[in-house]
Amino acid sequence: MRQTKITLSQLEDFLLKACDILRGKMDASEFKEFIFGILFLKRLSDEFEVATAKVKKKFKHLSPEQLQELLDDPTTYKPYTNFFVPPRARWNDSWIEKNEDDKGVVKEVYRPPLRDAKTGVGSLLNKALHAVEDANADLLSNVLKGIDFNIKKGKSSIPDQRWIDLINHFNSKLPPLVNENFEFPDLLGAAYEYLIKYFADSAGKKGGEFYMPNQVVRLLVQLLKPKEGMEIYDPTVGSGGMLIQSLQYVEEQGQNSRNLMLYGQESNPTTWIICRMNMILHNITSSTIEDGDTLEDPKHIKNGTWQKFDMVIANPPFSQNYSKANMKFDSRFAYGSAPETGKKADLMFVQHMIASLNAKGRMATIMPHGVLFRGSAEKVIRKGIVDANLIEAIISLPPALFYGTGIPACVLVINKNKDEKLKGKIFFINADAEFGEGKVQNFLRPEDIEKIDYVFTNKIEIPKYSKLVDNKTIAEEHDYNLNIRRYVDNTPEPEPEDVKAHLTGGVPTTEIESQKTQYNKFRFQSSEIFKAYKANYHEFRKTITDKTIIKKTIEENSNVISTIADMQRTLDNWWQHARDEFSKIAAKPKLEEDTENKKNRIKESIVNYLILSGNNMPIIRQELISSLKECLIPPKVLDEFQVAGVFVNWWSNIKYDLKTIATIGWAPSLVPGEYFIETYFKAEQQAIQEAENLIAEKESALQEAIEAVDYEPEETEEGKESEEATAKVIKDYLSEQLKVNSEKSEIEKLKKVLQKIRNIEDSIKDAKEKVKELQADLERKIEYKMYGVEDAKEDIKNLLAHTQNRIEELEAQGEPEAKKGKAAYTKTLKALQSDSMKMKEKLKGLDAFLESIGGIITPEECKTLILQKHNSLVQQELLKYLNAEKRALIADVEKLWDKYKVTSQQLENKRKDSLDKLNQFLTELKYLS
């Protein structure tokens, strides 16, 4: 039987199509809460429907009245769901609304389910959300009432049809949004994160208000390394990404993420709503997210004062104003107050975070560089923090990482419990030169994060990258200026320029030798490009006649090719071991389920997933990355951070596959369609390709036939040419010529040409129909190979039963007496009997058809193909890094070409030749004598 599990890609695609329904009338910043709201409502309703079914089953022995009393009581559902969904908010249930008139008469009005709403839809959705919030005030206070489906766009509201289309989209396409239908338990949370990023990307600068790039969040989390049992706080929580990644990091380490308390506060009401939903959809119950301005009024209060935490992580809004007028708990700002105007609130946020740490607490926050060196009141605050020995590290980040701002940023790490060797010191890292370039914004690559984390954790000093500096040096020599370049200047060394080489030719041998490290990675000899010229100089070989030859020479070099091949073989050897590790991830295959198994299936799969993700998965991950480093670092083509990048990129690509494997085993849905084709249906694909090739041939023949016709487009009255020579235009033209032409031989000729075009068109049409049939047949074979024929049998049986019932009804009615009625009766009955026979034949043939394609794919076969996919993905990641290193080698040599291939003397001679030609030309024109 087919496992109707929703995959992450399916859910992401579904949500994007929901966005398409609203796009056009509103931009992403306006419609995001509607998508979030209806998704949230549908999820709660679907879960509640499952809970209702369980209640009805448990209490089926009660009378209808007693059962209804239980169903109306919210406490009845507590063992099955965290939320009570009132009747008016249930997606699939109709309900009775009771209204009392002025005379006290109660009238009952039938209300259709939400899914069938047709009028006043915006109001109905609002009331549904309000009802859910009122019924779950302890969990959803002020969360859903902030979403208004009656929002006005200009002077008018969004039309009902827009909301109807959105509801209809959620009515179809996917099964109910409950955990039992998910490939892994937190699938909905993963899709919600994807949607948040999508809205941030669409919103541009505004996206930074509620979303921080995932890689920057990951960096901060890795620097702090949260552990189970901690209380973690984000005072500017946004959509909650930092808290969620902190929890996921704890899971990755094999620790109990349930033993973690998350706290946050957010001032933007819409963003606060998004965050609260995000926590719920991630099944995170151990979180407290407050709304309001953190600086003015911190909401996390304990014993009459603001709460202290083990870890604080944040990305406060850059360079804002603030006000002291209504500020509570002034003692949070122990080191002074920054100016209220001039957008200087940054160090106020830092002080609040420091004050929110317990005696052993640590924090990491993103700050603009200005806080490191600005004077006046900010310098006083900075001095106080430095003298208090609180700063563990300051890390400069690459430019343009964040949405809509180019302000240089850094990470400030505070530690109230620094190691003895770090006391009185600050560790500086200047990582602003190492990043990936994107079209809109830059990003931290996995190797960049791994390097920053490794250097920070181990406090390794690297020239031009990191340095440990005494506070005394900072105070006395730099007057508390923490500008990172004062301590770690990563300005590149000046490009060497050899004047003699520029004047008389040659390439300095020293500059060739300086590139030796990159050459050695690929065992590439510089003699392939250069030859000795004179003392201390080389020149390009005569074969290198053009800059493009350099790239070709390096790419075709046998040592370069073999180096890449050797690395790939090394990875293949590693994969033999990795495959065995992966077998430890999979959920145990299910035996034939009895009633009790079915009852506990989802519970068991979630427990299984939690056990694996909390135990085996972290161990396996660590084992794999360690063994990969052992294999790929020794050849010295990639460094340890690049190898880590290969692994992290790969692991990120397959992590949701792994969650699915851990939950339900080696699912066929994880196998790409092309793998099924390549393994089982290569002949079918070949037949499709041949049919498509035939179409291409016939289309070429059609074009030749069209071009052979003596047709010239005529100019219209507006001076434009009439239609180009398409098949239709030419057929119309030939038909017209037949009407006006009286010469018999010419008519025959025209008819032949016209018939030839029509014949070719018919053959193209037939060929396209054939391709459709072949493609449909292939899709059916893949479907049956993946999931078997039981679903198809069930569908046919249902249709057959319906048809049989209709036949029986007609036969029971008997043949009508009227002649006209008899004919219709007989025709209908025969058609139904024919359909019944066809369905029976099809039903009989399904098992034989399945057998003809080798039967349903086995878990072991799925495992083989899924592992093949994972192997292919890791090979792609390795090749990406190897190609980047090869490009770096090519760029090094091309730089020498650009610098030294053409000497200044050659340029001067060329200039003189050009000037002589110009003077000669001017003389001929008698401008010069």
Number of H/I helices? 30
Largest sheet: 9 strands, mixed
Q: What is the straight-line distance between the termini? A: 98 Å
The general outline is globular
**Which consecutive residue ranges, at least 5 long each, have pLDDT under 50?**
590-614
Structural class: alpha/beta
CATH architectural grouping of the domain at 209-486: 3-Layer(aba) Sandwich
What amount of the residues lies in strands? 5-15%
Please provide the count of β strands.
18
**Major sheet: arrangement of strands:** 7-6-5-10-11-13-12-14-15
What is the CATH C level class of the domain at 209-486, in words?
Alpha Beta
Average pLDDT: 89
**Fourth CATH level, the homologous superfamily of the domain at 209-486:** Vaccinia Virus protein VP39
CATH topology of the domain at 209-486: Rossmann fold
Query: What percentage of residues falls in helices of 4 or more residues?
Result: 40-55%
Alpha carbon gyration radius: 36 Å
Description:
By secondary structure, the protein is an alpha/beta fold. Among the domains are: 8-185, Up-down Bundle (Ferritin); 209-486, Vaccinia Virus protein VP39 (Rossmann fold). It is 54% helix and 9% strand. It contains 30 helices and 18 strands. Strands 7-6-5-10-11-13-12-14-15 form a 9-stranded mixed β-sheet. Strand 10, helix 11 (346-355) and strand 11 (357-368) form a beta-alpha-beta unit. Helix 1 (8-22) crosses helix 2 (28-58) and helix 8 (214-224) runs parallel beside helix 13. The N and C termini lie far apart (98 Å). Mean pLDDT is 89; it is low at 590-614.
